[in-house]
Specification:
Growth Hormone, Chain: A; globular
């Protein structure tokens, strides 16, 4: 991580990313709390999180837009747009205006998809391949570290100053991020986007993912694991209530903070693990850490639970850094926006669907039985990835793998993109 932070361009981008991630961490949970406060409904509060995830259906279109524009100004524009999308929150005055919060949550989710796709392409543009894992590790370290305090800060601002403070604080963070990226020097590379029928361009990200063995195996394994883990999102409440016999659901926030500590450590160690075992190997080990953590949650003992969520937290950035770096390494720069967006949708989409099913199942099935089932599925998915780790050998042992250069397009069909 020290190597990449020595680069002036990355330090400036990283400062903007920190501001973006702070805004992100204070916003989502507080929006759901706001809806709960206005409506007194847990279900309507949960719809807020669904609204954030719903734009995943537009991932191919979002990725296509990302690939049509220079990365640096587009990333700045996404952050400015995210800040502007928060302004309608200032008009919310009562339960009748909850729909405004849902719309803002949806726009925020859309900005998140575009921002992540652009960031992956921007890092690929700025950094040599061997430094990508360090950069991704640095981003995940900050993101996971903010899990320890960001949601609590957002909830505290909501209580102390009022819900409208969310728009001001988060909007400021997005604008700072936009300003940091806007001051970066122009890209040195001039890339073109081949002109194809619109349907082919929209499907290009999906075609690339399933056409490369390393990417196909990774997205399949990760999607199965996240599908299973989605069932467990609601189980943590049952673990606290029925397992630990704690009546205050707010204790879940304490466990999430402990998970953030584990995530911080995982983000710091992920580059070392991936440089040794490769991207698929690192992602597999991240998933396999979920297995003992999930099994430990069947034991209703608080110290055991604390260790379990910390181990779970350590696995999250390891898996994310491995998958993100693999996508960057095995995808040509001109296609990276579409591949990233579709990859996120294919992995996170099943999880979003399983969260709701898990919330229903926990009412009828013992949470410990569900945890055992989740551990079994994730163990299979993680082992499947581990067995395919040779598809992405560590770059320290092999020259960076990249698709062959595309032949130059005719002058009339060339366009510039970052």
């Amino acid at each position: 991580m020290r190597t990449v932070l020595k680069l002036p361009e990355f330090r400036r981008l990283f400062a903007g990313l920190v501001a973006n991630l702070v805004a992100d961490s204070v916003l989502v949970l507080a929006l759901a709390i706001w809806v709960k406060d206005l409506t007194r409904s847990d279900g309507l509060a949960g719809v807020t999180l669904f609204a954030v995830a719903a734009p995943m259906a537009l991932a191919p279109l979002v990725g296509w837009l990302v690939d049509r524009f220079p990365r640096r100004p587009f990333f700045a524009a996404v952050n400015v747009g995210a800040a502007a999308a928060l302004l309608p929150l200032l008009l919310v005055g009562g339960a009748a205006d909850v729909w405004v919060i849902y719309v803002v949550a949806g726009l925020y989710g859309l900005a998140g998809i575009a921002g992540n796709a652009t960031l992956n392409a921007l890092l690929r543009e700025m950094l040599p391949a061997p430094l990508l894992v360090e950069a991704n590790g640095a981003v995940q370290t900050v993101k996971q570290g903010l899990r320890m305090c960001g949601p609590l800060v957002g909830a505290g601002l909501y209580v102390a100053i009022g819900p409208w403070s969310l728009a001001v604080v988060a909007g400021t963070g997005f604008l700072v991020a936009a300003g940091a990226v806007a001051t970066l020097p122009p890209a040195r590379l001039r890339l073109y986007v081949p002109r194809q029928p619109l349907r082919e361009e929209l499907m290009a990200g999906y075609s690339h993912l399933i056409g490369r063995a390393a990417l196909r195996r990774t997205v399949m394994g990760a999607a199965v694991a996240m599908l299973a883990l989605g069932f467990g999102e609601a189980l943590i409440f049952a673990y606290v209530d029925k397992g630990l016999r704690l009546t205050d659901p707010g204790f879940v926030g304490v466990l999430m903070a402990v998970q953030g500590v584990g995530g911080l450590l995982g983000g710091l160690t992920a580059p070392t693990v991936i440089n040794r075992y490769g991207e698929i190997g690192g992602a597999a080990l991240g998933l396999l850490l979920f297995v003992p953590a999930t099994l430990a949650l069947t034991v209703p003992v608080l110290p055991v639970g604390m260790v379990a969520v910390a181990v779970f937290g350590a696995g999250v950035p390891m898996a994310i850094v491995g998958i993100t770096t693999l996508v960057q390494r095995f995808t040509p720069a001109w296609l990276l926006g579409r591949v990233t967006a579709v990859n996120d949708a294919m992995i996170m989409g099943p999880q979003a669907a399983s969260i709701g099913i898990g919330a229903v199942l926990v009412s009828f099935v013992d949470y410990r039985v569900l945890y055992l089932g989740i551990a079994l599925v994730v163990a299979v998915a993680g082992t499947y990835l581990w067995r395919g780790r040779r598809l992405s050998p560590p770059m320290s042992r092999l020259r960076p793998i990249d698709p062959p250069a595309r032949p130059q397009a005719p002058a009339a069909s060339r366009a510039t993109a970052a």
